[in-house]
C-alpha cells in the first residue's frame, strides 16, 4: 500500500500551481500524483541528491533560483529572483508547477504575495492574510517588500500562453 504524504506547507495556489516546503523522499509518491511538469526551487541549498534524482526520473523541468533567506540579518529579498520565477509562472506551458523553498513560508510567501499583487490585483490586506497563514506572523521585512515591490523591468510573457488567473494587463 502506498502512503501519500504532501510536503511541509503544501497548498494549492491556483489551478495548476502548488506551493510547499522542500520535498523529502516520503513526499515523492504524493508528488507523482500531481503529474508535475515544472518545479521552481527558491532557496540557498544545492545538496539533495535523492530529490534531484527523483526530478530527473520523473522528467520534470527544474529551475533552481538562488535566493538567500531574508530572515538572516542584512539579507534582503532579491527582485531579480522574483522576476525570474514569475516569468516561468506566467506561461501555462509549464503547468502543473510546484514552487517551493526550504520550509514554504517566507520566500514562497513573498513570491505568491507578489504574484497576487501584480497579476491578480489582490488587496494588500488579503495578501498579508495569506502570507501569515504560512509564515506564522513573522516576516515584517517580507511584508514591506511585497507592499513596495514594483517591476523594474518588463515581465516577459507569451500572451497566447497566459494562465487564466492573470487578471491584470501585464
Automatic annotation (TrEMBL):
Entry-linked Pfam families: Y_phosphatase2 (PF03162)
GO cellular component term of the entry, any: cytoplasm
Molecular-function GO term, any one: phosphatase activity
Keyword Hydrolase: yes
Domain of life from the UniProt record: Eukaryota
Keywords: Hydrolase
Residues annotated as domain Tyrosine-protein phosphatase: 9-158
PROSITE patterns: TYR_PHOSPHATASE_DUAL
Protein name: Tyrosine-protein phosphatase domain-containing protein
Organism the protein comes from: Wickerhamomyces anomalus (strain ATCC 58044 / CBS 1984 / NCYC 433 / NRRL Y-366-8) (Yeast)
